[in-house]
Specification:
It is a single chain. Helix 2 packs parallel to helix 4 and helix 3 packs parallel to helix 5. The chain is mostly helical and 213 residues long. The chain has one domain. Helices cover 70% and strands 0% of the residues. 25% of the residues are buried.
Length: 213
């Protein structure tokens, strides 16, 4: 279930319609109102990534519990897997949007690349040691693993490019600051020079003006 034809395809016109302050997950099945509020509050690019990761981890924890229930809750396992996939797709949408709009996600991407492999390992463990009746959700499990692999590949690419981009942007900001300071300094000198000229002209026009009576 790769949302993006080639591993996110950063920089290409593959972004779904998404407003920066919009919480698309509000219509997403399985999110509680409290989770929707957390997404709405997390407008920082990196913080939103961490929120999505926490949602995924919560579903994985519940999956592990279901996996130990001897297959008595197979429908719930499939539901949790579908929620995990949906959240992961929302996460990829967010990363894509922020990448296209130069949002600094470096902290969030590092958190994803740190936590993601552990989440992937939990999914693989469930796949290797499936509970009874696992055929009922085996396809959703494969999709969740494929989606998470795709997310980690895209996050790796995004982080590598942002690490190159933002130092350049920071250097550009420093250059602009230096140029502005230089311009202000030159303007200050020009103003001082103009004041001297005006004072000299005023004195030449009023040679007897000593500044007082």
């Amino acid at each position: 279930m790769k949302r993006f034809g080639v591993r996110f395809e950063f920089g290409l016109a593959v972004l779904l319609a998404l407003a920066p302050l919009c919480v698309r997950a509000q219509s997403q099945d399985g999110l509680s109102s409290a989770e929707v509020d957390k997404l709405r509050d997390a407008q920082d690019p990196s913080e939103r990534i961490k929120v999505y990761l926490s949602f995924q981890q919560e579903r994985l924890g519940r999956m592990e519990v279901v996996g130990e229930s001897n297959g008595d809750d197979r429908d719930n396992m499939d539901n949790l897997l579908n929620q995990f996939i949906s959240i992961d797709n929302e996460l990829k949408d967010w990363i894509q949007y922020q990448f296209d709009h130069d949002g600094d996600m470096r902290k969030g991407l590092r958190a994803l690349l740190d936590e993601g492999p552990r989440q992937l390992e939990i999914l693989r463990h469930i796949q290797k040691s499936p509970p009874p009746g696992s055929n009922d959700f085996s396809m959703s499990l494969r999709d969740a693993i494929a989606d998470m692999n795709d997310t980690l590949d895209g996050a790796t690419q995004a982080l590598a490019q942002q690490q190159k981009k933002f130092p350049q942007m920071a250097q550009g900001a420093k250059d602009d600051t230096r140029a502005l300071k230089k311009e202000r300094k030159e303007q200050k000198k020009l103003n001082q020079k103009e004041r001297k000229v005006r004072n000299r002209d005023r004195k030449s026009d009023n040679p007897d003006d000593s500044g007082g009576k």
